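Re: weekly structure request thread

Next one in the queue (123 aa):
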Amino acid sequence: FARRHPLLYSALFHQPHVDCTAGPRFVTELLERMAVLPDLAQLNPVERIVLLRKMAIFTHGLATDICNGLPPEIQWEELLTLLDEVGTVIMSDALARSPRSDEDLSALGSLCKFPIDPTKDAE
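Done, posted below.
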């Protein structure tokens, strides 16, 4: 999306929006889907939020680079390989890590908050 529509991507993700609920609804949907996947269901809900936030930070950073224009010698396949490699490392870390303390989970949960609290049931 960022590659095909860099100005629209920038307008959607780099500008503050008032009353925009599409992003939070998307995050909530992703977290619900993550919760039913066998490997991810074993994670604490906060760990799933942390995992999603890590992936979002990397993905949006990469998309920003794409919007700002990549050197022409960088091929799309190389970007996909990079995205796959980083995603694999982040997933492997999340699945292999020892359980965090309640204090660490609380701190990370606060740090990784999305615009709405995706751990609360939809009202």
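The helical segments are 6-13, 22-36, 38-41, 45-67, 76-96, 102-111. Residues 8 and 68 are 12 Å apart (CA to CA).
Next request, please.
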